[in-house]
Sequence to fold (338 residues):
Amino acid sequence: MLILGIESSCDETAASVCEDFRNIRSSVISTQIEEHKKYGGVVPEIASRRHCENILEVTKQALKDADVTLADLDGIAVTYAPGLIGALLVGVNFAKSLAFAAEKPLIPVHHIAGHIAANYICHKELEPPYLCIVASGAHSHLIEVLSYTEFRVIGRTRDDAAGECFDKCARAMGFPYPGGVHIDNAAQNGDSAAFKLPHPAVAGTEYDFSFSGLKTSVINMLHRADQKGEIIDKNNLSASIQRTISEIITEKTMKAAEEFGYKKIALAGGVSANSGVRSALGNACAERGFEFYMPELSLCGDNAAMIACQGSYNFAAGITADESLNAVATMPIDNIIY
Fold:
């Protein structure tokens, strides 16, 4: 089975061909990071325009690299939710047109499900059910992966996501966009115990996340130091931020695993590239005898390989769409509407 995947939910235009569920024949990504860097974050209008400019050539290259034609494909998968609505619309409309012209099935894919599926590409032995923590710039979810196409959320962010906290703290520290990687790099030379930072909790729930208080605490600390003419060691603060976010994610994930009886744990999303998070979760799983899975660094961020992979499982489950498929900016993974 050959599935073409198309991803355009934010600022990466990507296309990929997946063979037999988990084997990636090609993966092409056109990134916009350098352009958005001067604005300190993604500008939705610019992102949408660049998708329009890049999506055809990116898809052509993915087909060429995989040595296949449209006629060889069994289906065309596309991210349709959630994400920046303008960016999503580019991918969805392109995929609909391509599927119609090639007379191929159109397969809708939820972006978070795609991030989870990145682990299938890297770990051929991984099968549901298991517990997955999805952490990115927009999402922090604790998800029970019941099957390849069924999910149940047991915890989610109530305000800022983990990746957003990394990026906003980094911006306040003077690091360029995207800031998460700069905090990770600086943390390697810092003392993670230098600053005691808060572990915000959400009243009434054990597994929901809240990173807004941590972000505010760091920003206020930096402002106070600036007003007093004091210099805060960025390496130490970076290490402390990374340690705190890693602890929050790990503590909630381990508690949920023990309560719900999971011994297989997976990590996914952009924050899965963070060395502190990867190490903290890996060590916690090893101490408890749990199996731990995480994607390769190249598959942590947005890419189309994960969309093609998840699209393969959706297609096998009979999940397809017609020309009425629309982009949706916000959609919970445990209430997917195709």
About this structure: The first strand starts at residue 2 and ends at 7. The chain has two domains: 2-115+300-335, 127-298.
